Amino acid sequence: MDKKLQTTITVVLAVLLVGGGIFFGISQAKKGAKCPFCGKYFPHGEIMGHKLRCPENDTDLTPRSGSDAPS
Ligand SMILES: [Zn+2]
What we know:
Layout: H1 3-31, E1 33-34, E2 41-42, H2 44-53
Antiparallel strand pairs: 1-2
């Protein structure tokens, strides 16, 4: 095989892989993180706050006060 052609193919494949990886990363970042409770997607900056307030989250995360807090 022509050495130059081989190099060109390698470069094109590398660009496609890197480009695809970047595109995948951007689309994932835009999609955000999936809430494990309601299954909806939220921006990464909001997913933590949402999980605590998610209506589907039935884990009681209310901070307990007083002496009846489990230890
Ligand atoms: Zn949710």
